[in-house]
Amino acid sequence: MTNLSARMELTERLEALRASLPDKVEAAETLEELAGLEAEAIGKRSLVAQARRELGTLDPDARRVVGRQIQETADEMARVLTARRTVLEAATDATILERERVDMTLPGRVPAHGSLHLVEETMNEIVDIFTSIGYTVARGPEAETEFYNFTALNIPATHPARLETDTLYLDYGDADEEVLLRTHTSPMQARYMEERDPPVYVVVPGRVFRRDALDPTHSPVFHQVEGLAVDTDITLADLKGTLAYFAREIFGPETKVKFQPDHFPFTEPSAQMHAYALGQWIELLGCGMVHPAVFEHVGYDPDAVTGFAFGMGADRVAMVRHGITDLRYLFDPDIRVLRQFR
Fold first, then answer.
1. Contact indicator for 290, 228 with CB cutoff of 8 Å
2. Which of 41, 160, 255, 276 has the highest CB neighbour count under 10 A?
3. Can you spell out the DSSP letters for 192-234?
4. Which helix (H) or strand (E) holds 296?
C-alpha cells in the first residue's frame, strides 16, 4: 500500500470515528458505559492509538498532516467524553443525595428513657406524701450496731429478733459491739433524735435485711419506710389522723382504715393499721406511741415530749397498689416483668 492510499484510509477511519462517537456518547446512560466508549475511542487499543503507531510508516509530509488530524480527533473526542461524564456524574450525585437525603425539619428520634424500679418509685411516693405535710427525710447506714438496731429501741437482750436465726450478723473485726445488717430502718430514728432537739418529724426510707427464705411473701432483702413524730402534746389521735391521711393519699380518697392492738417493744400503746383497698382489708403498717424508754436512750425527757412512730413495707404497698401476688416478681431481673410496671 502506497503512502497516499495509507494516509487516505487512516484519515477516513478517523473521520468516521469522529462522526459516530458523539451519538454513542450521548446514548450512554451510565459512567460504566461511558468508560467503555472512552477505551474504544482513545484508549491504548483504540483507533487513535493504532493510528499513532502507524505514523512511522508515512513519509514526513503525510506524517505531519495525519499527526495533526489524529491529535484534533483525540482532542475532540476527549471533549465530547468529558462533557458527557460531567452530566452523568451530576445525575449520579443527585440520585445518591436523594436516596440519602435527611429531612432536617423532621422531629428527632428520642431514645426510650429508663424508669425507676417499682419499689423505688413507691418509696418516693410515700416519702412525698409525708414531706408534703412537713416531714424531713433521713437515711442511715445499712450495717448497723446492735445498740441502735435493738437496745436504743427498747428491744431486750432476750428478744428472739436478736438471734442469728432472725438477724444477719457481720464479721466486723475488733468492733466494740456486734455489727449487723439492719433489720428495720428504725435505728435511724434513734440516731436522728440524738443529734437534734425536738420537735422531730422525719421519715426514713431504705433497704433492710432479715434471715428469711425467699417465697411469695418474704425476702431476705426488702424495703421499709419508717416515720417518727416527736413534739409536745402529741396524742394517739395525731397518729391516727396522720396515717389515715396517708392511706387516702396512697390508695384513694375513699380508703377506710382501722387500728388493731399489737405489741412492739419501742412503742406503747402499739397497733397495726389495716386499710380497705382493692376490695379487701390489708394489714398495711405497724405503729404506736413512742415508748418512754426510747426517749431516755437518746437523751430526751419523756415527761416533756411525746411522739408516735410507724413503719411500713414499701414492697407490700407496691404489691397492693398494682395487684402483684408474688413478692419475687419485684426482684426478677426479667425485663419483660419489670417493663409492665413502668
1. yes
2. 41
3. HHHHSPSPEEEEEEEEEE-----BTTB-SEEEEEEEEEEETT-
4. helix 292-298
167: Cα separation from own chain's centroid: 35
- State the virtual CA torsion across 294, 206, 130, 263 in degrees, nearest 10: -40
Dihedral angle of Cα 325, 326, 331, 337, to the nearest 10 degrees: -60
What CA–CA distance (Å, rounded) separates 266 from 328?
30
- Residue 230 one-letter amino acid: V
Nearest Cα to 205, choosing from 317, 108, 104? 317
**For 257-283, what is each residue's pLDDT tens digit?**
999 999 999 999 999 999 998 788 989
Using alpha carbons only, give the angle 274, 150, 297 rounded to the nearest 5 degrees: 105
Q: Which helix (H) or strand (E) holds 314?
A: helix 314-322
What is the DSSP code (8-state) at residue 218?
B
What's the pTM? Answer: 0.67
Q: pLDDT for 177-232, tens place per residue?
A: 889 999 999 999 999 999 999 999 999 999 999 998 888 888 999 999 999 999 99
Q: Can you list the alpha helix ranges (DSSP code H) found in 2-140?
A: 3-27, 31-42, 47-54, 60-99, 118-131
Tell me the residue ranges of DSSP E strands in 210-305.
221-231, 256-264, 267-277, 280-290
Residue 201 β-bridge partners: 229
Gap between the Cα atoms of 170 and 154, Å rounded: 22
Question: SS3 breakdown of the chain: % helix, strand, coil, rounded to 5?
Answer: 50, 20, 30
CB 308 within 8 A of CB 289: yes
Residue 179 near residue 146, CB atoms below 8 Å:
yes
d(CA 190, CA 298): 6
Give the three-class secondary structure for 231: strand
The CA distance from 173 to 142, in Å, is 17
What is the rounded (10 degree) CA torsion for 162, 166, 172, 178? 0
